[in-house]
């Protein structure tokens, strides 16, 4: 652009941004996390979608819950509230002797934790979930309508996570309960064994309880 003399050779970075935004080459998106007093700036090309914007917040994360349901073709429209799962670091597995029905009842008798880390931009809300480390089990690249692929929980995992704690979920979560009753176990792993055989052992989050 300098060679074409579209803008001055001495233009600063700020001047250049102002120029391309004014010309409509880029759009500035300001995402704010009110509970953390954090602001992230993104400069988007024309045609950038809310999925593009959300995915840029944590490149190593993946979409889950209602966002994954959309990408897996379970819903026709993309919700305004998107969910990104940022897996925790690995932790030692609890011993089998430490698990008992009494301890599970105590753990789940209180309200499930809610994520306070979410970013907003206009009508978009992106909630960051701190999920248990699964080494991205059942996470696959899935193409969005725009043609770009995003890391997303696959169909089976998405249905399992939507089914969890169905008695506390929104109608969207419960509407898929009957479909997940007969989900096959594609991998003999801790995620699938615990998610299906023991509904109280949860590796995900109930969407209705994570809305900011």
How would you describe this structure to a colleague?
With 212 residues, this protein is an alpha+beta fold. It has one domain. Helix content is 27%, strand content 20%. It has eight helices and eight strands, in the order αββαβαβαββββαααα. It has a four-stranded mixed sheet. Strands 1-2 form a two-stranded antiparallel sheet. A two-stranded antiparallel sheet has the order 7-8. Strand 1 and strand 2 form a beta hairpin. Helix 3 runs antiparallel to helix 5. The C terminus is likely disordered.
Tell me the number of structural domains.
Answer: 1
Tally the helices. 8
Broad structural category: alpha+beta
- How far from one another are the termini? 43 Å
* Bulk shape: elongated
Largest sheet: 4 strands, mixed
Secondary-structure element sequence?
Answer: HEEHEHEHEEEEHHHH
Number of strands: 8
Strand portion, in percent? Answer: 15-25%
Q: What is the residue-mean pLDDT, rounded to a whole number? A: 76
């Amino acid at each position: 652009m300098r060679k074409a003399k579209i803008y001055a050779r001495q233009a600063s970075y700020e001047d250049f941004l102002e120029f391309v935004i004014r010309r409509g080459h880029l759009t500035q998106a300001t995402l704010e996390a009110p509970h953390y007093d954090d602001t992230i700036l993104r400069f988007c090309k024309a045609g950038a979608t809310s999925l593009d914007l959300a995915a840029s917040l944590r490149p190593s994360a993946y979409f889950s819950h209602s966002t994954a349901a959309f990408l897996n073709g379970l819903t026709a429209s993309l919700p305004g509230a998107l969910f990104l799962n940022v897996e925790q670091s690995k932790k030692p597995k609890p011993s089998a002797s430490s698990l008992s029905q009494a301890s599970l009842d105590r753990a789940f008798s209180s309200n499930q934790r809610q994520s306070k880390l979410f970013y907003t931009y206009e009508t978009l809300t992106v909630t960051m979930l701190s999920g248990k480390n699964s080494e991205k089990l059942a996470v696959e690249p899935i193409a969005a309508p725009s043609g770009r692929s995003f890391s997303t929980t696959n169909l089976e995992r998405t249905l399992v996570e939507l089914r969890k704690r169905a008695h506390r979920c929104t109608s969207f979560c419960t509407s898929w309960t009957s479909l997940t009753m007969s989900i096959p176990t594609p991998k003999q792993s801790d995620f699938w064994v615990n998610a299906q055989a023991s509904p109280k052992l949860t590796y995900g989050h109930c969407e209705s309880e994570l809305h900011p």
